[in-house]
Each structure stands twice: as C-alpha cells, then as structure tokens.
C-alpha cells in the first residue's frame, strides 16, 4: 500500500508485513525546501503543516504513481511528481 503524508513523504508499505519497502521525501530543509505552513497560504484548515493532501494515482500500465506535493521554496509553489 502507499501512504502519503502532510510532511511531504510517500511510503510504500507491504500490506502483509507492515515493512516499509521504500520512502520518498519531497522536502530538503538544508536547501530551503519545506512543507507549507498555514501562514504561507493564509489558511488554518490544515495544521501544523500542509504538503500532500490529495490521493496519489497509479497508472497500472506504466507502474507510475503520480501525486501533487506542495512545498515552500522561498515562496509558495506546487509541483506534480511521479515516482
């Protein structure tokens, strides 16, 4: 199964064992790439941070997973990533 988090991470987890098969983080604080705070978007509906709020989509033909990740990179930007 795949788990997407508000902390900008995507996990692939074995549904039978619970083992983490792989994990991808879309932030890099050392490079100034962080999650979005409520102050960045003037919205307090999602606390304390926001990043991946939608459900990832898998293309079964190519085996590609698509997701929308919102990050703060010296301002606000949203990007679509595939893995």
Characterise this structure:
5% of the residues lie in helices and 40% in strands. A hairpin with a 4-residue loop joins strand 4 and strand 5. The longest helix has 4 residues. The chain is elongated. The two termini are 14 Å apart.
Topology:
Layout: E1 2-4, E2 9-13, E3 20-25, H1 38-41, E4 57-59, E5 64-72, E6 76-82
Antiparallel strand pairs: 1-2, 2-3, 4-5, 5-6
Short description:
This protein is mostly beta strands and 83 residues long. It is built from one helix and six strands; from the N terminus they run βββαβββ.
Widest β-sheet, arrangement of strands:
1-2-3
Overall average pLDDT? 82
Order of helices and strands: EEEHEEE
Query: Structural class per helix/strand content?
Result: mainly beta
Please compute the radius of gyration using only Cα atoms: 14 Å
Number of H/I helices: 1
The profile of the biggest β sheet is:
3 strands, antiparallel
Globular, elongated, flat, extended or rod-shaped: what is the shape? elongated
Please mark out the parts with pLDDT under 50 across 5 or more consecutive residues, or reply none: 79-83
Helix % is under 10%
Termini separation comes to: 14 Å
Number of strands: 6
Strand content: 35-45%
Features:
disordered C terminus; 1 helix; mainly beta; 3-stranded antiparallel β-sheet; elongated; 83 residues; 40% strand
């Amino acid at each position: 199964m795949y788990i997407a988090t508000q902390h900008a991470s995507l996990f692939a987890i074995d549904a039978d064992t619970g083992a983490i098969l792989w994990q991808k983080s879309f932030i890099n604080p050392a490079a100034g790439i962080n999650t979005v705070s409520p102050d960045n978007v003037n919205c307090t509906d999602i606390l304390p941070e926001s990043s991946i709020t939608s459900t990832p989509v898998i293309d079964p033909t190519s085996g590609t997973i698509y997701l929308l990740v919102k990050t703060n990179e010296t301002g606000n930007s949203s990007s679509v990533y595939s893995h």
